[in-house]
Design a protein that fits this description.
about 35% helix; 11 helices; Aminopeptidase; about 375 residues; alpha+beta; four-stranded antiparallel sheet
């Protein structure tokens, strides 16, 4: 019996694929590669024409048309919304007379959370997907392909394809079997324990904190959160990445995987944080406020996230990119990874040299930061 014939193809959207087939490849652990999340980005206009994120998912099907492997990928006209910064690469290539954009971005849009980037029914299909991405770049005169926030288990697949690896640091909180937030505080040094208690008390004075999930989240909640999100987005990025409709679609399609945390002064919501529930992690994504309250950002984004993770028995909290201030609040330094394919051999060699030097610095930083955690030192 002959082996089935495989077809590698590029589609115009994730919505072009059957939801159940896509999700069977992506699994249930990571919400950001789910069909529901990716199509909410498409259907809301958060990605697509005019955004610089043109959906270009690459897939492998068999001769019966069954989906065997896929990667969420986008033709990018800029380097915004990625959280792995390659602006210096773009500048260098432009100065050399090249054209860096468009490039191929393999990622969950606007989401610096680790997860699978190759959605596979069988690991043996990984080389075909990677070669498919390279072929898309060459056929469309793209300078490069970039897979960002790759889960560590998939790094060997990219290494085997001779993609260049890049590392960075995030801060994650780890649940070491804590029964409560107080149990977590017990693992900290006395001074840090007191500091966190004071921060929490100051943040919530006169306020009420509420958690909403699933059908509890109403359009009124999304309206309030949209105001918070717009304020943060305009300050950080110039304009928000997501449209208002994106939040409604996320609530409609995957509300049971969302924890929306709002701070109320009486009946008025004044701040909020949006989290997604994974198989073993809580992912903090967006935050905003209409009134500045000291320590409220830490309370909603970090401490309330810890409470929610403990209540659900989750192993960790990934609270987003950057943020050395997370270290003092019990979040520990963790290396994150991306992989890069560069079409031009000379440019590739220059990037490889840069990455080798950068990785040494990142590893050194992680060791230093790891020594500065607030946990009690063992005798």
């Amino acid at each position: 019996m002959s082996a089935p014939e495989l077809t590698v193809r590029i589609a115009s959207s994730v919505g072009a694929f059957d939801r159940d087939e896509w999700n069977a490849l992506g699994g249930n652990d990571n919400p950001f590669v789910a069909h529901e999340f990716l199509t909410a980005m498409e259907d809301s206009g958060s990605v697509g024409p005019g955004t610089g994120w043109e959906p270009a998912p690459i897939a492998i099907t068999d001769d019966a048309g069954r989906l065997l492997a896929a990667m969420p990928s986008y033709a990018k006209g800029h380097s915004q919304g990625e959280y792995v910064f390659d602006h210096s690469w773009a500048d260098a290539w432009h100065r050399a007379g090249g054209r860096y954009y468009p490039k191929l971005q393999i990622a969950a849009p606007f989401t610096p959370a680790t997860g699978p980037r190759l959605l596979l029914s069988d690991p043996s299909l990984a080389p075909h997907l990677l070669k498919g991405a390279e072929a898309v770049c060459l056929q469309n005169q793209m300078s490069s392909a970039h897979a960002t926030f790759i889960e560590p288990a998939q790094l060997p697949l990219f290494e085997a394809g001779e993609w260049l690896l890049r590392s960075d640091i995030q801060f994650h909180w780890f649940n070491r079997g804590y029964a409560s937030f107080e149990a977590f505080l017990g693992a900290l040094s006395s001074r840090k324990r007191k500091d966190l208690r004071k921060e929490r008390a100051a943040a919530v004075e006169g306020l009420t904190i509420r958690h909403f999930t699933g059908s509890e989240i109403t359009e009124a909640h999304w309206d309030a959160f949209w105001v918070f999100y717009q304020d943060t987005g305009s300050r950080k990025w110039g304009r928000p990445y997501l449209t208002r409709e994106a939040f409604s679609l996320l609530g409609e399609r995957m509300g049971e995987r969302i924890v929306l945390i709002l701070a109320y002064d009486g009946d008025q919501a004044i701040a909020g944080a949006l989290n997604f529930i994974g198989g073993d992690a809580l992912y903090g994504r967006y935050w905003g406020c209409t009134r500045e309250v000291r320590f409220l950002h830490f309370e909603l984004c970090y401490y309330q996230a810890i409470d929610a993770a403990i209540a659900r028995g989750l192993a960790r909290v990934e609270a987003g990119a950057q943020g050395g201030h997370k270290l003092a609040r019990g979040y520990e330094p963790v290396q994150t990874w991306s992989a890069h394919w560069i079409a031009d051999p000379g440019f590739r060699a220059a990037v490889a040299d840069f990455l080798e030097r950068e990785r040494a610095g990142v590893a050194s930083d992680q060791l230093y930061l790891g020594s500065r955690t607030p946990f009690r030192k063992s005798d």
